[in-house]
Amino acid sequence: MTSPSDLLAARFQAVAAATEQRLIEALADAPLEGERTRPSHLMAAMRHGSLDGGKRLRPLLVVESAALFGVPLARAITAAAALECVHCYSLIHDDLPAMDNDLLRRGRPTVHVAFGEETAILAGDGLLTLAFDLLAGEDAHPDAQVRIALVRLLARASGIGGMVGGQMLDLAAEGRFSGGTPQALSEADIRTLQAMKTGALLRAGVEMGALLGGADAEARAALAAYGTALGVAFQIADDILDIEGDAAALGKSVGKDAQAGKATLVSALGMERARALLADLVAEAGGALAPFGAQGAVLAEVARFVATRQN
Q1: pLDDT tens digits along 170-179
Q2: Rounded-to-integer distance, Cα 158 and Cα 35, Å
Q3: pLDDT at 263
Q4: Which of 39, 19, 20 is nearest to 29 (CA)?
């Protein structure tokens, strides 16, 4: 009998391969209808920032959530790739000198190191707009109303009240706009910041899957609750890895949160309470999947994976 962890590993592999192939197709050099040309340096930078790396967690959430409603991987992969484009754009921009100034991502030079800062900015812009190009096509979903709903969902998760707004709150908390003095944030403030910066895209993944599958309001609410708990768990685990993780295993620098004075739940609660909260969140995520019975096993294993990952 296949163990839950082995099943999840197989699903990760299948979704990662399908996502990679969809991104390769979307990032081909040949221009599409309405495009004049695709600059080769820009395309190389976009491929560097999005191909050959990463676990593809967010695409997995789209695919596995859609699968709860009978949607096969092939029908969900375009929306999944769109979400991954937004995630990869955010990493390229996060790594910029004006943001986190990181030199390594996934064990190799960041896009601004490999291609220059100007190209990195444009590569991120290109991936962001490509995401909505993908969602607008019929291969994302045959129903135009569903495509519109997908576009709005991803736009709001990634925009002002989601990831972009969360990044702004994070910069403000570091003291970027107050003379370099970090702000003292409450636990509630930190939760809001992290729910926007990190959690919004994770929650969007499961909600996009629900839209693809035509889920009813009850099922969508259950998946939203799961996605919310997963987002907090992911960020706590990430903050713990920044303190205790190995740079070689992570493929990026560690210890930068403390250096930058970032407010995290680990710093606010202490390591012991943060670990206890992490365990509670995994249980909460699993409980939210109860309406789906055994079909929710893969997503429940995702929550456990997120809490215990080493990279």
Answers
A1: 999 999 998 8
A2: 25
A3: 83
A4: 39
| Chain position carrying tokens 């099922």 | 219
Confidence of residue 4 (pLDDT cuts 50, 70, 90): confident
CATH code for the domain in which residue 109 is found: 1.10.600.10
Find all residues with CB under 8 Å of 72, minimum gap 6, and list them: none
Range of the domain at 91: 4-308
Residue 220 has pLDDT above 90, yes or no: yes
Predicted confidence (pLDDT) at residue 261 exceeds the cutoff of 70? no
Please name the amino acid found at residue 303: A
Label residue 113 exposed, middle or buried (CB < 10 Å: 0-12, 13-18, 19+): middle
Place of tokens 């309406």: 291
Transcribe the chain into DSSP letters.
---HHHHHHHHHHHHHHHHHHHHHHHT-SSPPTT-----HHHHHHHHHHHSS-S--HHHHHHHHHHHTTT--HHHHHHHHHHHHHHHHHHHHHHTSTTTT--SEETTEE-HHHHH-HHHHHHHHHHHHHHHHHHHHSTTT-S-HHHHHHHHHHHHHHHSTTTHHHHHHHHHHHTTTTTTT------HHHHHHHHIIIIIHHHHHHHHHHHHHTT--HHHHHHHHHHHHHHHHHHHHHHHHHHHH--HHHHTS--SHHHHHT---HHHHH-HHHHHHHHHHHHHHHHHHTGGGGGGGHHHHHHHHHHHH---
Q: Are 106 and 53 in contact (CB under 8 A)?
A: yes
User: For 60-79, what is the mean pLDDT?
Assistant: 98
What total of structural domains would you count in the chain?
1
pTM of the predicted structure, to 2 decimals: 0.94
